[in-house]
Amino acid sequence: MFAVEVAAGINATLGHSLLLIGLVCATFGALATVYGIRTNDNKLLRSTQRYAWGVCAAGVGAFVVMERALIQRDWSMKYVQQVGSADTPFLFNITAIWSALEGSILLWLVVLVGYTVVIAQRFRKRLADPLVAWALVVMFVVCMFFFVLTLGPADAFQRGALGVTSGPGPNPLLQNHILVLFHPPILYLGYVGMTVPFAFAIAALITGRVGERWLSETRRFALFAWGFLTIGIILGGWWSYEVLGWSGVWGWDPVENASLLPWLTGTAYIHSVLVQERRGMLRVWNLTLLVATFALTILGTFLTRSGVIKSVHAFSNGSIGPYLLSFFGLIVVVSLGLIAWRGDRLRSPGSIDSPLSREGAFLANNVVFTVFAFVVLLGTVFPLIVEALQNRTIKVGAPYFERLSIPFGITLLFLMAVAPVLPWRKASAELLRERLFWPAWGGALAIVVPLLIGARGLAPLLAFGLGGFASGAALRQLVLATRRQGWRGLVGRANGGMIVHIGVIVVAVALVASTTYTHSSRLILEAGKPASYGGHTFELIEVQSFTTPRSNGIRAQISIDGGQTYAPAITKFTNFGSNIPTPSVRTGIFNDIYLTLESGAKAGATTLPMKVFIKPLIVWLWIGGALMVFGTLLSAFPGTRRRLPTQPTSAPIPVDNDEPLAEIVDV
Amino acid sequence: MELSINRRTLNKQLKRWPGWLVLAAVVVIALAIASAGSSGPLTDSDRIDSISQRLACPTCDGESVYESQASAARGIRQQIKRFVEQGTPSDDQIIQYIQNQFGTKTLLVPNASGFDALVWALPAFAFVVAVAGLAVAFRRWKLVADTVPTDDDRALVQAALNDQEHEHES
Predict the structure, then answer these.
(1) Hey, are the CB atoms on B34 and A382 less than 8 Å from each other?
(2) Which residue of A has its CA nearest to B65?
(3) What's the Cα-to-Cα distance from A131 to each of A218, A223, A472, rounded to whole Å?
């Protein structure tokens, strides 16, 4: 008994000490790096890697200590009392760490210190380069902020009330599906990863090296973070579908919106950055997008972790809000200040000649993505604005976002169709007529085929048509590239990007089909009498009850089409009152059959109320997501090298040159 | 060889305006059929789903009546079910009835009147501003592109280039 208590004391003390060490390392790292830059002390700058390792060790250590406390069921700790439970299975006990606010900030911290050390390691030979050094300073400062959070308002290592020897365990929804292990960390890899390009953007502003070099340094980081954010969002949809029982993948919940916002601005960035790489233009805009992306991750965390917005996902905690909001304000003020200060260097030479060009299409893409991000943000915070100004409560829910996202989706599909065939600089009508012909017939086919199968409705078929058009354009590019270069025609930003586009189109078509053509019915099954709906038969085999140490409930065995049985269930977790329905899904290439039990289902009964959803093309959401990830990987590989000196964008703008233009002309 | 040339010219022929006109006709007719028809009748359950998706669960944190498993949401779903099975009231009437009962907190879509109309107007406004901004930018770029360098400009650039060369030599 005594030994357990000593171990318990150790966890809290160890956790706090590690966090404190991390804070000290991050602070010293930041100060030493700034001092090194100021005094041109290259030796000092080369040693900053050590601070990064120190920060990393401390952050990871604290996380491990918390896991240890959870595994040991260390009831002396408040957090374990909150999310731990003696009978949570090992896996869900491990994942319990991110099932509440304090632990989720720890997860954030671990990912952040990981990225910090990756930068220090990746650029270890160039730590004396002021650009890299300043980027590290920014990373250290962000680390400092998160260490402060974990020591202050989100202290996971607080000691709990004495005498508590049990806890409720994590929320039931966080302990009944394996995806709880993957969705949060992967989402955080993307969400927190946006810090890296932000850090380099700030470093570029401070050093005045706002030319294109810093972009190529971080393009892969940005792409990496974007890819993980994409996987995280799609896994979230899959999880919701498999667990929540309302058969949907996206509910426009504030927390979901908070993950979508940086994805939208990040997507805008990875497109418009190509204009900067190619033409040296849009510098201010790209910096703004990166700053906005990072700032939105912090704002989103504020909205959903401070309790100001109510959501099923939200963890409410009173005191973290002001910290996050102040940090958000600081980011915005500092970044805008720097952009204003560097305004003269940021003005870019050159001009975009025609809206009907690759650059023009990228700009249109940016307009759509940023306005869409604005709409999502507006809808998310509007209830807060109304409450603050008029002291009324209103809700802005899924139907609002769904209605408004239709025009954006349609426009984006159209752009995806036209943009890939557009040349840089200027396109002519003949060229478009020539290049778009077969893709456009692809679009016509994508309208006619569903029409023949029986799909109706203007908006969905327009979406299918544009989807076919856009995939035609993407395939055209891939076919031409592979004909020229063989398998190399699939790698590189342009070609890998086309595979991402096809993935996006598949997801879009699946979303449209599954939301428009889902049909559902409430059936009352009787044992031995198959009921039919939507061309399928459903037969009740039996309804059993089950008990585990932490829950009890009922499970029905239902045979679909006289074949395999599916087992939807309703579970009641003993520590939480509510009934949690668990759907059972038969996945198919064309249709999913989604079964859930309705209230009134009883064990041993010979009749069973249940609900059947027939949902078309759901599986293509996950296939499209996988394609997006595959394409992202391919576009991270270098394609054809483009380092010709004749290309204007390879000219860096020198820092200490009063005549930057002359340098460009020289090249 | 001859065949491939023939195919190429055929491809070229197809891509002229008549080919596009056929395409446009096919698309317009197909979309007309699509918007005229409906894909099968809605079941009662479909109607209950679509109505409950438009209502907020009065006791939950931001879930709709459709999504929520809370007892209040179940109760409202039952109520909608009774209305739908009666058959007479329209979707809007049912929603109105539920709102009279629970107040505006069950409204999931803000009104398009009063202050709340801003949530509808601002997106349109943002879109107009963004497009206008883009148009202005293109205009400015066009002006820049259209400027023909004067002899003075050329002399200035030449001088700068000469300076650079001298620097390199020295």
Answers:
(1) no
(2) A246
(3) 12, 20, 42
Q: Do A394 and B104 touch (CB under 8 A)?
A: yes
Does the pLDDT at position A584 exceed 70? yes
Residues B8 and B24 in one domain: yes
CB burial string A446-480: b at 16+ within 10 A, e below: bbbebbeeebbbeebbbbbbbbbbbbbbbbbbbee
Amino acid at A114: G
Task: At A547, give phi and psi (nearest 5°).
Answer: -135, 135
pLDDT digits (tens, 9 = 90+) for A271-280: 999 888 888 8
Q: Which one, of A253, A495, A507, lies nearest residue B68 by Cα?
A: A253
B window 63-92, beta carbon within 8 A of A: 63-64, 66-67, 69-70, 74
Residue A162 CA to residue A165 CA, distance in Å, equals 9
Containing structural domain, residue B60: 44-109
pLDDT of B2 higher than 80: no
Number of domains in chain B: 3
Could you tell me which chain A residue has the CA closest to the CA of B115? A386
Mean pLDDT of A330-343: 92
Helix-strand-coil split of chain B, %, nearest 5: 75, 0, 25
- For residues B75 and B119, state if they share a domain: no
Average pLDDT over residues A468-478: 95
Q: Does A484 touch chain B (CB under 8 A)?
A: no
Q: Does position A650 have pLDDT exceeding 50, yes or no?
A: no
Picking from A390, A411, A437 by the largest number of B CB atoms within 10 A of its own CB, the best residue to mutate is: A437
Residues of chain A contacting B119 with CB distance shorter than 8 Å? 378-379, 382, 396, 400
Any CB–CB contact under 8 A between A35 and chain B? Answer: no
Q: Are residues B82 and B65 in the same domain?
A: yes
Nearest to B15 among A434, A519, A581 (CB): A434
**B101 and B52 housed in the same domain:** yes
> Which residues, 6+ apart, have CB-to-CB distance to B122 below 8 Å?
A374, A378
Output the pLDDT for position A24. 97
Residues B26 and B75 both lie in one domain: no
pLDDT over threshold 60, residue A7: no
Residue B152 has φ and ψ, to the nearest 5°, of -60, -45
The token duo for A253 is 């919940």
Give me the phi and psi of A161, to 5 degrees please: -60, 145
pTM value > 0.95: no
Asked if B99 has any chain A CB less than 8 Å from its own CB, the reply is no
Question: What residues of chain A, 308 to 347, have a C-beta less than 8 Å from chain B?
Answer: 309-312, 314
Average pLDDT over residues A158-180: 87
CATH code of residue B48: 1.10.8.640
